[in-house]
């Protein structure tokens, strides 16, 4: 008997991963959480039947979500991570000695506890003394924050279910207020390839553009996400992700990475023409 | 009844595309050729059960294989395309008025004729008066050529079956001799993600590095290829793909593209650290 995990990327496209063992399955108050041991990708975390993290390629996502802002502003001290229950973003952030405080606000404690137990590759630094875990709604959490964080990372699921409120203009406004003058917002920005994903991407981008002075998008290759072509948003009150990069300074830190480097930092902001056109589309 | 085309990306990963109609199927002397009408990707050409071209994303592949060298050397006049039976590379090349001659050497006439009939989106410019079609073995074709082409594009299948000889050092040496002083070789360079593909990529790269003075690699997002993370090689006798780029000159041509632009030209040569390390690996 063969066991396969299959994700529908659209109604007409399926991606299937051969499973050694279905290790964990739980319905939390928010969502369905499953962990599989797979042949090709190591451990696989899915939420509501969608790939969130695999051990083989999580480094791409977590390095690109954290090192890009940190290389632009190495003076970042206070960080807020919204979502990111697998712990991978926090793992990368804790590598920076400069960072004094990381608040991680994850609505679903079950995600964190299951990853701590079964995917320590990502959930290995949640006990760092600078990290405070809040099992709360990130949307509410930022409502009363002001001038408090140098970096907010929205490491969310897609804009359905608990993730939906993380793609609203009210939320982006609250993030703006919660950020310091040199603050940076990084958010999961969906994909430009399949229609459903690209619609969400266009909507999210239009809203962020209305709130932040600087609003850019960068891309990366993550093969286990639909199409493998994924985007993060970079927004700030003035800092530019390219002009603000001090490559020598970041390289002097000596951090060993597998995907991120200061060349791909710059290169990832160069977008295909069809993506640029989508981001400029004001009709959505 | 539902019809699905499934490709095994590895023994443990499958990619499936819902099919409206299986339009064409033929075993040529070289390989098995099939064309499907699909819901998500339009027409789909497969060879020996592997995705070669889909109408939805062929523009990525064909723009990146042709415009990168053309933007580096706008004086290119004589071009050799090896493989490329779907016609997409030739379609992009014929947009350059400067080009005087395009020799396309495709071993399998059945690929060309089936694409002319069923995928005119790519095979629409093979009757351009500058194009000469040779249904021959590209490996033999370049053996006696000397100082003849400004650009050679190796638009090949993977290094199995008829494509195998296009990944040998003898072939790269013959290309070198066939190229003019400012000549450029672009070749299909496989993917860094799955082990089988990345092994081929490392091998091919090591050989090209031994033959050409300049040997670089650039990447692009093509969702219907395994992992969606694909590479082309850029090799020359001295011209550098970044320093040699005259962005203003290319932009002045006014060519409308969907993926390529002069920013992504530069950005695509910035590679993830794990890819750079693979390309430097001398043990393969």
TrEMBL record, chains A, B:
Leading EC class: transferase
GN (gene name): speE
Keyword Transmembrane helix listed: no
Family of this protein: Belongs to the spermidine/spermine synthase family.
Identification of the protein by name: Polyamine aminopropyltransferase
Keyword Transferase tagged: yes
One Gene Ontology MF term: spermidine synthase activity
Pfam families referenced in this protein's UniProt entry, alphabetically: Spermine_synt_N, Spermine_synth
Active site: 155 (proton acceptor)
């Amino acid at each position: 008997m063969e066991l396969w995990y299959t994700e529908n990327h659209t109604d007409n496209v399926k991606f299937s991963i051969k499973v050694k063992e279905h290790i964990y399955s739980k319905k939390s108050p928010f969502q369905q959480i499953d962990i599989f041991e797979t042949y090709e990708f190591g451990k696989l975390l899915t939420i509501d039947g969608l790939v969130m993290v695999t051990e083989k390629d999580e480094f791409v996502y977590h390095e690109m979500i954290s090192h890009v802002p940190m290389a632009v502003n190495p003076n970042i001290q206070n960080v807020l991570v919204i979502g990111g229950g697998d712990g991978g973003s926090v793992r990368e952030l804790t590598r920076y000695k400069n960072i004094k405080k990381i608040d991680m606000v994850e609505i679903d404690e079950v995600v964190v506890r299951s990853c701590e137990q079964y995917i320590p590759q990502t959930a290995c630094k949640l006990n760092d003394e600078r990290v405070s875990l809040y099992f709360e709604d990130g949307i509410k959490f930022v409502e009363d924050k002001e001038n408090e964080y140098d970096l907010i990372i929205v490491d969310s699921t897609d804009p359905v279910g608990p993730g939906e409120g993380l793609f609203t203009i009210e939320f982006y406004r609250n993030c703006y207020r919660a950020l310091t003058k040199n603050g940076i917002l990084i958010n999961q920005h969906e994909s430009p390839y399949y229609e459903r994903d690209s619609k969400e991407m266009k909507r999210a981008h239009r809203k962020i553009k209305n709130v932040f002075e600087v609003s850019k998008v960068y891309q990366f290759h993550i093969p286990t996400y639909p199409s493998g072509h994924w985007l993060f948003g970079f927004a700030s009150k003035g800092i530019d992700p390219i002009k603000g990069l001090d490559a020598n300074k970041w390289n002097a830190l000596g951090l060993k990475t597998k995907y991120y480097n200061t060349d791909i930092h710059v290169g990832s902001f160069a977008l295909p023409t069809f993506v640029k056109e989508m981001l400029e589309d004001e009709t959505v």
